């Protein structure tokens, strides 16, 4: 490990990556438990032996879909989000709430349910930890292309906030501008659009 020549820290190379580590847990208490999300309070022990209480939120995890049509327009859904009191522009997305369902299967399902769209081409472009300071939630974003509509008879009847959902097709470059100027702020959507842009520059 080589120190930085003039600043605190060490010089890294291309092999640097996140690593697994687990501090001992002295105590753990379940605070809230539902099929959608659980909350527990852990008391962890640091390397010096001191104890610290940490809240740990455990959602099911989620997937998102960046769907592009033949003219390089990205699909965005507009949905009311009660916790932030706003209608947000987002990628079609959803939680891993079907037992045994793989992330790609969930992405296929969510695209059909939220946007009435099927894709023939799929690839994983991004994996994220949503808020690792207090949550275990993991996200995976997929790129979907070669699109066609779900037949009318097979479309999902959407409920609650999803019943009020709108679908928009925005040129990809304009979606990128909307991210950079703050008109799109949902974190999975921001990450998916920026990752797609970065992949195109490589």
What can you see in these coordinates?
- The protein has 202 residues and is of the alpha+beta class.
- The chain has 2 domains: 35 residues, no CATH class; 133 residues, Nucleoside Triphosphate Pyrophosphohydrolase (Alpha-Beta Complex), CATH 3.90.79.
- The protein has a 4-stranded mixed β-sheet, with helices on both faces. The chain has a 3-stranded antiparallel β-sheet with strand order 1-2-3, with no helix packed on it. A 3-stranded antiparallel β-sheet has the order 6-5-10.
- Strand 1 and strand 2 form a beta hairpin.
- Helix 2 crosses helix 3.
- The longest helix has 15 residues.
Using brief descriptors, characterize the structure shown.
202 residues, alpha+beta, globular, Nucleoside Triphosphate Pyrophosphohydrolase, 18% helix, single chain
List the helices and strands and how they pair.
Layout: E1 25-33, E2 37-45, E3 51-59, E4 62-67, E5 73-81, E6 86-90, E7 93-95, H1 103-115, E8 117-129, E9 138-149, E10 166-171, H2 172-180, H3 187-201
Parallel strand pairs: 4-9
Antiparallel strand pairs: 1-2, 2-3, 4-7, 5-6, 5-10, 8-9
Helix pairs in contact: 2-3
Give a quick rundown of the structure.
The protein has three helices and ten strands. The chain has 202 residues and is of the alpha+beta class.
Radius of gyration: 20 Å
Global morphology: globular
Number of discrete helical segments = 3
- Structural class based on helices, strands and sheet pairing: alpha+beta
With strands numbered from the N-terminus, the spatial order across the biggest sheet is 7-4-9-8
Order of helices and strands: EEEEEEEHEEEHH
Question: Superfamily at the CATH H level of the largest domain?
Answer: Nucleoside Triphosphate Pyrophosphohydrolase
**CATH class term of the largest domain:** Alpha Beta
Named CATH topology of the largest domain: Nucleoside Triphosphate Pyrophosphohydrolase
CATH architecture of the largest domain: Alpha-Beta Complex
